[in-house]
């Protein structure tokens, strides 16, 4: 009986549902924020906002206000200077959270903080165990294993000219994401990377989001578009334009 219990426990904890909300920056869709609040308050009821990508706390405060319109659960902002508190206190705060949301700013700065504090595995473990994760702008860009840094030559269609580095890696490794996509004319950047690397490219425009379930299915939430670049070979790719409420499979290229 003890052996059976351990097997069942292992199965139940290994296959937790995962939810990841990726916002392209700009105005955050109210329906997307409402969905994140809902997903974050199943089980434990506490949302933690991580402001470390930004030079200002204002963005985190605005996100807190928006989420508070959809839930009565406690919403906290992590210390703006994470090295100002003990690491054990910070980790305890992360572990108590049922929803974690990353602000915009600089994805490189955000990853530097996570790596310096050895927090990447803690966040990954929270995700696979069912904690809802969300991000906007830089907080979206860094969710992939291969992260676009923002540096590079955007005047050419050449992925080797686009700087990439390690991201948090919540999404499957065959996916790369770009944000502010249409507004900031980032077609060359993402298309070049897809052609060079063979990764599945997802470009999320401002004002729109992508809700990913179990790292398999994705649904657009918001009034603008999400562009999907599927690699065919080193010189050819397919392009799909996805709009509000449309869904697609991301389990493979």
- The ordered string of helix (H) and strand (E) elements is HEHEHEHEHHEHEEEHEEEEEE
Radius of gyration: 18 Å
In DSSP terms, counting alpha (H) and pi (I) runs of 4 or more, how many helices?
8
Shape: globular
Question: What's the number of extended β-strand segments?
Answer: 14
Report the end-to-end length measured between terminal Cα atoms.
Answer: 43 Å
Average residue-wise pLDDT: 92
Largest sheet descriptor: 8 strands, mixed
Strand order of the largest sheet: 3-2-4-5-1-10-11-14
Question: Strand portion, in percent?
Answer: 25-35%
Structural class: alpha/beta
The low-pLDDT segments are: 1-13
Approximate helicity band: 25-40%
Protein architecture, described:
This protein is α/β, with parallel strands linked by helices. The protein has helices spanning 2-14, 30-40, 58-68, 87-95, 107-116, 120-128, 138-141, 187-197, and strands at residues 19-23, 47-50, 75-77, 99-102, 132-136, 146-152, 162-166, 175-179, 200-204, 209-213, 217-221, 226-233, 236-242, 247-249. It is globular. The N and C termini lie far apart (43 Å). Residues 1-13 have low confidence and may be disordered.
């Amino acid at each position: 009986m003890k052996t059976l219990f351990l097997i069942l426990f292992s199965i139940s904890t290994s296959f937790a549902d995962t939810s990841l909300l990726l916002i392209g920056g700009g105005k955050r869709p109210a329906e997307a924020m409402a969905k994140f609040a809902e997903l974050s308050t199943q089980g434990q009821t506490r949302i933690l906002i991580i402001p470390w990508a930004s030079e200002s706390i204002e963005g985190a405060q605005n996100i807190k206000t928006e989420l508070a319109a959809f839930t009565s659960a406690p919403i906290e902002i992590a210390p703006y200077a994470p090295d100002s508190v003990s690491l054990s206190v910070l980790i305890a705060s992360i572990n108590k959270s049922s929803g974690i949301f990353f602000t915009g700013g600089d994805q490189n700065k955000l990853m530097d903080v996570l790596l310096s504090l050895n927090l990447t595995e803690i966040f990954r473990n929270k995700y696979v165990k069912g904690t809802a994760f969300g991000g906007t702008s830089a907080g979206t860009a860094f969710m992939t294993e291969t992260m676009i840094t923002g540096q590079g030559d955007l005047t050419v269609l050449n992925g080797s000219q686009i700087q990439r580095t390690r991201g948090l890696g919540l999404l499957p490794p065959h996916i790369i994401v770009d944000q502010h996509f249409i507004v900031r004319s980032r077609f060359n950047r993402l298309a070049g990377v897809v052609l060079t690397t063979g990764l599945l490219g997802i470009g999320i425009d401002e004002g729109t989001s992508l809700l990913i379930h179990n790292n398999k299915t994705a649904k657009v939430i918001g009034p603008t578009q999400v562009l999907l670049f599927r690699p065919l070979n080193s010189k050819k790719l397919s392009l799909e334009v996805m709009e509000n409420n449309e869904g697609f499979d991301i389990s493979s290229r």
